[in-house]
Design goal:
The chain is mainly beta and 390 residues long. The protein has four domains: 32 residues, no CATH class; 114 residues, no CATH class; 108 residues, no CATH class; 108 residues, no CATH class. 3% of the residues lie in helices and 43% in strands. It has one helix and 29 strands. The strands form seven sheets. Strands 2-3-7-8-9 form a five-stranded antiparallel sheet, with no helix packed on it. The chain is elongated. Bound molecules: 2-acetamido-2-deoxy-beta-D-glucopyranose (3 copies). One 2-acetamido-2-deoxy-beta-D-glucopyranose binds next to loops.
């Protein structure tokens, strides 16, 4: 092999310069012609089949089109057995459509910007790397190159699509920065409704209150967003628009499961200081503590499970709280309020007692509701527990 290679190269470059016969390090002599025909059989060339070409789906003439290649030529790199190959890659859209050419890893050709029916580009490959390369110069003058391992050509209709615009909504001006906040929109996208020139658009509407404030978003007709219920600092909602109606729509599902939809022709946002709710505190009760008896006569009284529920439309709340004490085994406890009122559970001679007390913040008193006829429910200021042998 080495012998016949030597012969070929010697033959190719002629005999007058026998020093350049080294296959790896041969240098080009100025008189050496570079030709693309009659190359030695061992010339390494890139193959068009190293690229994967997209194929059209015969059942979907509007889908991606077939990618073809043609015009492969290889030019020997002088003094070597390597070559530079070039060929054309081409895609044709059907009439009324334009085509894009895309390579793997989001590679694009510059021609995609022009909505052309046909795209043909040249790619180049050096047999020393065996990589097909697309290269072009962008409009801003910067070079763009991309390796080409696979090529697909999606096509799309040239007919302009009908789409809603974010600007058809009126965004309220901020007249009073104390109470109004700016409404912004972002993330506008439009998606073609298949087989039509219509689109469905979506975008986000957003408002931000300053710290310590909550925000509420309102639409033209007194419509509100569900998020207004949450007393949150920031609200972002999505609205949708079908170009066949050109109406922006806010739609959601309420807590009770019912759908809620509002058209949005104008939007405004208002902020207000976050309300501090008035609540009852467990610390307004004095809880008894265990004594030094052995076993104790008085045991610790504890509280837990405080909840406060806003009284609708007010800053007041109804709170509930559990008060509890435990006897040791073989003993029962009695719970006593304010030094005299007895828990009704005392009648049961049980080891552990837990009662619930309730407080309306407008009154501020914790009440133990006994629900016994003829007996006033005691207001609980102190709670003590006595432990006695069974
Ligand atoms: C695209 O290629 C097809 C097929 O060669 C040809 O009929 C058509 O005129 C070309 N379109 C344009 C805009 O060059
Ligand atoms: C509201 O948005 C602002 C600005 O992005 C941010 O600083 C703040 O933390 C957000 N507040 C909440 C409660 O997410
Ligand atoms: C009383 O509470 C203690 C501690 O939680 C528990 O071990 C005991 O079983 C309870 N007694 C009864 C009768 O529920």
């Amino acid at each position: 092999m080495a012998r016949s290679l030597l012969f070929l190269i010697t033959f190719y470059f002629g005999f007058e310069n026998p020093k350049i016969v080294d296959a790896c390090f041969a240098t080009q002599s100025p008189s050496t012609p570079v030709v693309t025909t009659e190359v030695p059989p061992e010339l390494r060339t890139c193959s068009a089949s190293e690229i994967t070409y997209g194929v059209a789906d015969p059942n979907n003439p509007e889908g991606p089109v077939s990618v073809t290649n043609f015009g492969l030529t290889s030019t020997q790199i002088a003094g070597t057995l390597d070559s530079i190959s070039t060929m054309k890659i081409s895609c044709m859209a059907i009439d009324g459509y334009y085509v894009n050419m895309e390579f793997q890893d989001n590679g694009q050709v510059k021609e995609n910007l022009e909505n052309l029916q046909n795209i043909t580009v040249e790619v180049t490959c050096d047999s020393r790397t065996m990589e097909w390369i697309y290269s072009s110069v962008l409009d801003d003058g910067s070079p763009y190159t991309h390796t080409v391992e696979s090529v697909v050509c999606p096509q799309a209709s040239l007919t302009p699509l009908n789409a809603c615009s974010p600007t058809t909504i009126m965004y309220a001006a901020v007249e009073n920065p104390q109470t109004n906040v700016e409404v912004t929109n972002f993330g506008f996208t439009s998606t073609q409704i298949p087989d039509t020139t219509e689109t469905i658009s979506t975008m986000k509407l957003s408002c931000m209150a300053i710290d310590g404030y909550d925000v509420k978003m309102y639409f033209n007709d007194g419509g509100q967003v569900k998020e207004n219920l949450d007393n949150v600092q920031n609200i972002t909602v999505e609205v949708t628009c079908d170009s066949r109606t050109m109406e922006w729509i806010y739609s959601t599902v309420l807590e009770n499961g019912s759908p809620y939809t509002r058209t949005v022709s104008s939007v405004n946002c208002q902020q207000a200081p976050l309300i501090t709710l008035n609540t009852c505190s467990p610390t307004t009760i004095t809880y008894g503590e265990g004594d030094n008896e052995n076993p104790q006569l008085y045991v610790d009284v504890t509280n837990f499970g405080l909840t406060s529920t806003q009284i609708p439309g007010t800053t007041e709340t109804i709170s509930t709280l559990k008060i509890s004490c435990m006897g040791i085994d073989g003993y029962f406890v009695n719970m006593e309020f304010n030094g005299n009122a007895q828990a009704k559970e005392n009648l049961d001679n049980i080891q552990n007692i837990t009662v619930e007390v309730t407080c309306d913040s407008r009154v501020g008193d914790w009440i133990y509701m006994m629900n016994l006829p003829g007996i006033d429910d005691p207001t609980v200021e102190t709670a003590d527990c006595l432990q006695l042998p069974l």
